Amino acid sequence: MEVSKASIQKAVANNIISEQQGIALYNFFQEENQHTPSFTFTHILYYLGGLIAIGAMTLFMNLGWEQFGGAGIVFISMLYAGVGLKLANSFARKHLIIPAGICATFVVCLTPLAIYGFQQWLGFWPQDDAVYRQFHTRVKWLWLYMELGTLVTGLTIAWRYKYPFLIMPIAVTLWYISMDAVMLIVDQDNMWNSYTWEFRAQVSMYFGIVMTLLAFWVDIRSRHVADYGFWLYLFGVIAFWGGLTSQNSDSEVSKFFYFCINLVMVGLGALLVRKVFVIFGALGCCFYLGHLASSVFRDSWLFPVALTAIGLGVVYVGIWWQKNEVKITRQARRVLPKLVQELLEGKLR
Q1: Distance (Å, whole) CA 208 – CA 231
Q2: What is the pLDDT of residue 2?
Q3: Is there a contact between 255 and 288 (Cβ–Cβ < 8 Å)?
Q4: 234: Cβ–Cβ under 8 A, 6 or more apart, which residues?
Q5: What pTM was computed for the model?
Q6: Residue range 86-93: average pLDDT?
Q7: Mean pLDDT, rounded, for 12-31
Q8: Quick one: CA dihedral 2, 5, 10, 13, positive or negative?
């Protein structure tokens, strides 16, 4: 829970703490939270500038860079990486953690460009019609060398600097690998061609489960340090939910099972205090209800009435939950492993 200046002023007004204690407490929280990402103008400038720089060397690359040739691309990438590491070290010495993490992340994001240039330089690039600007928009097996190299670089720099934002390119790279590895299998065996979409959806779903479990493991291991699991949770849930939603079935039982899985995601998000589960779970529930309204109960006047009753019932459950939340959560935590209890305690303070 974030403590605002207004909250401290109310505590002073109610004689809970003195005015001097309120000032000291506010200054303490300000110092504690200055390196934690938040929606402040300073942090917005940090991330806006960092994402512009990262986007310039990734998403917004144009064909003009191809004229430098493989050797030129490698040289420019190494030059940029040197500047990025220099800035990261400089910011770290000044205890500017967020800018240091952004600069270190910028270096990791340069890795696929450098590997692409290196392959072109040595004449190992397999396709003349594939260029680097397609890396983030096309699913191809030939990106795997770039992705594996980025994964190694990302893990190395994350181990060196230990900034949570460095997990972002690692999570994205793992997601890309899951998609491009499928294309490698499909391209090698023509028998898969008729099942490409379904097969890719299943791989995405199972890979999302693995990444989410990895995020949970990282979350427990780093529960006393920083939030290293955020980006893994984000892309794990996206991969799982995207693969699950892409499954095609004419069975109403399967669709209802899909609805139940999304309800579980909402509950899991509330338990782990992870909004990404709640958001995608709620979207899935809305999709299922939309299916019922447009297909199953299309001509029934009772469905909107029943749905309204269900909605009001959910609101009532929320009121009941608010009154009994402390009691229920305490009883529920007792059956959980001690490590999970410590993780939840840290998030719910």
Answers
A1: 12
A2: 57
A3: yes
A4: 171, 276
A5: 0.78
A6: 92
A7: 74
A8: positive
